[in-house]
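Changelog excerpt: complex records now keep ligands as SMILES alongside chain sequences, and the structure block spans every component. Example after the change:
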Amino acid sequence: MLLKDRICIVTGGSSGIGRGIALEFAREGARVAVVDRQETPLRGKYHETETTTPTVSEIEKLGADGLFLHADVADEAQVAHVIQQTVEHFGGLDVLVNNAGIHIPGGAQELSIAEWDRVVGINLRGVFVATKLAIPHLKQSKYGRIIQIASVHAYGGGAGPAYAPAKAAVVNMVRDTALEIGQFGITVNAICPGYIETAIQDYLTPEQVEEALEKTALSRFGLPRDIGRAAVFFASDDAEWVTGASLLVDGGFAAGV
Ligand SMILES: NC(=O)c1ccc[n+]([C@@H]2O[C@H](COP(=O)([O-])OP(=O)(O)OC[C@H]3O[C@@H](n4cnc5c(N)ncnc54)[C@H](O)[C@@H]3O)[C@@H](O)[C@H]2O)c1
């Protein structure tokens, strides 16, 4: 087991990619706090149509320890509270995965300013807040790791004026944070997923789904597990000298851009 007894937080862990990460961590022996604004998994139009069980039930079926904690990552008081609850429940913190994110479709003329604030508030500010509040605890760990879930859209336009810039900022924030916290032996890296089979794709038309699939070199969408395995790598001892990096896990989508 690559993560035996490591204490991990996965935000947005009830559904989709976060759920995939939480389950792969559990498979590797980690103790996982699932932080989400809802415990019931999202069910999508195209994907995850049958997913119903809470992530913690699935973690326990794998023989690992799980804990559900309710929080909206846009609210710093709630984030501070769940980090504290994790530390008290499990006795520390080794790995933070900032995965919670949303997408609101629309260009600069459609997206309201409140919607822009909401996307950036969760996808960028939320990542900063959890990172800032977790660092004092990660400093106490011998295995401190931060993993930020960005996107292939960090590297190009076309995903709207809030989502893509927020993800690009996360990629650059990883470099900045790496320089700051390397002295404490904490690593920080980003994973940039391509199109993954989750409910976040509900805003796409069937034609757009087909087009994204055609642009994916490996001819299938990713599964939450594909991102989960990359996250296991960054969280494990195998990645102890990797920091400030961003890894595309996109089935070759960006290779053609
Ligand atoms: N699925 C993809 O194709 C894809 C591609 C690239 C990047 N991503 C990124 O991966 C991450 C996960 O996406 P997903 O596809 O699993 O999405 P999803 O919508 O399937 O799941 C997101 C989860 O996060 C939770 N969440 C959303 N906002 C929250 C908040 N403010 N506070 C707490 N929890 C919150 C939701 O309740 C849900 O459980 C996001 O950051 C997303 O931008 C996804």
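Residues 11-12, 14-18, 36-38, 42, 71-74, 99-102, 122, 149, 151, 193, 195-196, 198-201 surround nicotinamide-adenine-dinucleotide (CB under 6 Å). The chain is about 40% helix and 15% strand.
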